[in-house]
Fold these 2 entries.
Entry 1:
Amino acid sequence: MPNPIAFSILVASLLAVVYVSWWGKKFTSTTTDFYVAGGKISARLNGWAMFGDYCSAASFLGVAGAIALTGIDSWWVAIGFFGAWIFVLVILAGPLKSSGKFTVGDVLVGRFGGRSLKFLAMLTTVVIGTLYLVPQIVGAGHLFQLLLGLDYLVTVFISATIMGVMVVMGGMMGTTYNQAIQGVILLVAMLVLLVLSAIVYFGGNPIAIITQAMDTVPPTSAVGVVGQLPPPADGTSYGALALAEAIRNGFQNLPSALTPGVGVPNALNQFSLVLGLLLGVAGLPHILIRFYTVKDAKDAKKGAELTIIGLAVFYIAVLFVGYATMTILYPYLIEMLQAGQRGRATNMAIPLLGMELGGEVVLGLIAAGAMAAMLSTSVGLLISMSTSLSHDVYAGVLRPDSSDRERLVFAKLGAAVLTGIALLASIWLKDQNVAILVAMCFGIAASTFAPVLILAMWWKGLTKEGVIAGLVVGLVVSLTFTFARFSNVPEVFGITVLGNPALYGVIAALVAIIGVSLVTRTTGNAREFMAMAHRG
Amino acid sequence: MRAEPGAHASRETPNYASPDAAGHDDAAISRKLRSAIKLLAIFCVSYFVAAMIATPEFRHIAQIELLGLPLAFYTGILVFIVGIIVTRMCLNQDQER
């Protein structure tokens, strides 16, 4: 085994997670406890849990790794991840808590009634959740590969199995504590990386990280010219700073790591990305379900405020850590790019920085943090999908008279099948940046649940047929462009495929919702529903 | 584990069947909507301006240097600051209500 100490730390953290899940089981005596911890979670605990739930592999590994490779343009994903919470807080958090009980399906059925909406909400939840699960498994697979030196296929299988087992273990109470603890670990790990990098390599001055980046050509731009450099005068190989300086001096026309607009294809692509990120959280089931775990709308908003402050600190630290990684691991990152391992370089840059800064102990801590990010998000996803499968479809549509035990078995079997599907997709998408994969899921969520939920809360003229049309059209359009993007198809029906499907998906969904609502009349209990949603 | 009463909604009936049960105030909802739109507008201006100047079409703006660092760096940081201010304003409005 290549890294026994780091691996031991990782295993210890995993055992702690299992213990918390097991401990949380004693608070789970009803289905409400299992789905939403009985609505008894405090605002502060929920704030930390939302932070842990939200900071997935994309935030911890993908964004910092992408900044290390390409520079400031990759920071936009992090800014978008942050901005989405402002949107959710202002427009959705309070009404969502006041009008729903367990799932998005509850909200829609609360206004319109009907089994078709429950089924459609479950289908959308499962599609978004499964796709969101893929980057978590990809990230975990790469991490285990780094620690154990095993083949990627074996490591993704191990990772998916652990995630599946975690769902069988726990309910929402254990998951909440796990996510909150993991949220704290993530924030501390990122800040530790920042402080250690600054002390060890930048004379204790974090601003020096930025000024050094100003003088560094990002690895993705440097990889094409590094072969043209003359060998060092003393016959040895270049150190990190010397290599950065040689490339900077030798190729002054190349951009620096702080040059904006280099990694962004064009304004349309950027607009689609930031739109998807802004609206995405409003449609992510594993985040929305967290608002049901607190007492009332005020606690839902208070928890969101804590999450927002934590995310601001975290994502600003991510920029500094990304740049520090670029400087410290510069030759290594270029080597990985030369070897065609861009996905691995992006996703594993942060654990490698940990190894560089503090050997196996820090690598182990960072690995534990990364695994915490992936596990907390994955378990949150699987619980939200299980709840939707069991509550919306099995208990709500297929077998309303089923026993609680049967619903639970159905939910867990469903979760196992969905984990298997996500595992297969993880093998297909092994070289994708996990942050980009997550951003695509944001695009799908922004095109489906987000417009439907926002209009359900704020527009009396919304009809049931409009909701169905919006969900179907948004899902089909966003999925079509997502798979076209991954299959490298440049155009669909003459429309250019963008990096994120949100622009087309959101517009198509809004046109469908508003258009169909204007010609139909089933507005449900609009007045009563909205009074309930906006009470207090 | 036992099923919580009402743990699943009925097949066809919406949860809020009685107008009297919830009561409603269209004016209050409109006020809330207007204040939410104002807060979102403040945030979205900073968010989308910062995002769009960082594109190839407008990068000459984002590359303007202030104190040795490009404007894109400051606008990125500004999004976080505006976000936190809008968050506080939103919660303050709730308390005033």
Entry 2:
Amino acid sequence: MSPKLLKALHFFTPLRSPTGLQLLQRMEQSAEERKILVIDDDVELCDLVGEFLQAEGFSVACCQDGIDGAETAIQGDFQLVVLDVMLPRLNGFDVLRRIRTAGRTPVIMLTARGDDVDRIVGLELGADDYLPKPFNPRELVARIHAILRRSRPSEEKRQKLAHEDVVVDSAARSVKQGGKLVELTSVEFELLVIFLSRLGVAIDREELVKQVLGRSFTAYDRSIDMHVSNLRRKLGPRTDGGDRIQSIRGIGYMYTSSEA
Amino acid sequence: MHSLFLKIFLWFWLAMALVAGALVVSVISTRGTAGPEKAREFADHVLSLYAANSARVLEEQGEESLNRYVSELERTAGLRIAIFDERITPLNDTSFPAAARQLARRTLRTGQPQFGVTPRFIFASRSVTSAKGKQYAVVGLMPRTVLAARMEPIDLAIRILAVVLTGGLVCYGLARYLTSPLGQLRHASRELALGNLGSRVPDTLERRGDEFSELAEDFNAMAARIQGLVDSQRRLLGDISHELRSPLARLNVALELARKRAGPDALDYLERIQLEAERMNEMVGQLLYLSRVENQMGARMSALDLTDLVRQTVADAEFEASAQNRSVQLRSSPPLIVTGAPDLLRSAIENVIRNAMRYTAENTVVDVALVAEKRDNRTTALVRVRDHGPGVPEQSLDMIFRSFYRVGEARDRQSGGIGLGLAIAERAVRLHGGSIHASNAPDGGLVIEMRLPAS
């Protein structure tokens, strides 16, 4: 299966044990109400997402077409815009262009097709993040928090997890390898966090599925292997040429150190 | 194309050369036959002398000497002479055609030299008055070939060459004219077969106004219809897949909302719903990818290192396989360069290896081999993937590349396959002008061979 498709498979659950990230999220939820604009032509989806975001402490407005959406986004006082690519009257990229000429309101693009081109165009036009549809709403919330935190860097202390040349900024949900930004899906991000927090320990596949995919392991489940494989490919070999992640025969995977 | 072209060209040329040859031979055999002026000259200059001599010999030495003189003349000069007296009685033994006697009669009646030509001989006749005052008619016969002017061999060669070359040129044109529409038709139909549904026969062919243009018109109509049907089918598949994403997106959000409120005993079922939604999403994703591959006729192709691609793919697969207590190993990897789209080729090879990993028994190896096949100066890259699993029933071997084809309902569903991986591989390989083939290894397990044109 293509790695592109895997990006469409974003079902993820935060770690069971509260991480620094989750603690920060809880602090923020008690803070003042935030206004989010969702621009998507699917009315029912807007309603469901609105309900979900409200439960997370946001106030939500919805627009169903591109022209209305762009106007509302520019005139209203929104902290963040969730923008679908496929819209009637004015497509998502054009809406994004209009929003960008007016200001710096953070935008998360929903790329419908898991399409690389959509994602790249969106990011080039100044989208702050993207999420392939269908998405997991918990992930949407995690990204909204990450972006809002990024836009006020001075207010929070950044949580960083680092090992050798890999640096994970869990607040901004970004990963750098040798100073370069690595684009990871959220499943890959969660995998990396688990690996780095348990360096040199073999973790079995069943546990990874539970922790990262948020469901129980089934007998012929191969998807976790693909995610680990993709993460390994994206991070590349260690500076000394060795494999960062090793597969342990019949068990699972382990993140290794150079000295190990 | 070349064989029909060659056949028409050579046959017409041969026919033309034969006709020309026959003409040349017949011209040579009759050519240079002396015309009337020549005959006259011959009569005046030669016959007068011979006639006088003959009359003298006859009168002075008798018929016997005349016969000797005549045969001597025939032997040395190739000239046959017949002498007639006033009553048209032949005076020597020479055999001669009836025409000679008529000529002699006319000569004696008119007193003028006479000439005659038959297909084989030239006749000339002349009257002569002997010393004794007798009138004789002397007829000379000469075979026409004796007088024919010989043609120089170089002259002959130039003429034959000119005929053959002109003939060749004309025949070449003719053969081209007849076969080039076939070439165009064949090119168009081959393109169509390769999946380029926009392939059409050029307009120029349609304007010829002969049977070929009717065929071309029919072909174009057929291609247009096929393209329309396939396009609408693909669009339907793509649209359905795309539309399925909207309810899936809503399902995911609703699922999370349900999780927030559900009691602990409902969580197992919600988890199950999540798993099924994941499967559905994966299927939709693969379907969309498949329709992208099918519509990617003009994908950006570049020269790429197949050896490197296979090595990387095997390394990634081995990484995953070993966690599943299986193994993937590359047995041979000669250097091979192919022209292709890296993404598509990688996904083709990856899908085939993944399929093998899914079916190979635990603690067994999936063997991957890269082979350079050389035939007729062309190199083909062969990627062979062999698993140690249950194999596939013989009658199903050709069908495993169809989308959603399942060999055994229960087993495949359990194995987690969707039924699109091999279909994607097949489309991608075909897009690169290659072929894919499945067979069972004699000692068990499935062998899938992908062949790609290499440079």
